Amino acid sequence: MRRTTLLGGLLIGLAAMIIGTPAHAATETATVKTGSNLRAEPNTTSRILAGLPAGTKIEVVCWAYGEPTYGTDAYGSMWLYTSLDGWIHSFLVTPVDVGPCASSGNHVGRAPATGPFVNCDQAILAGAAPLFRGEPGYAPHLDRDNDGIACEWDE
Question: 111 in a domain, yes or no?
Answer without folding.
Answer: no
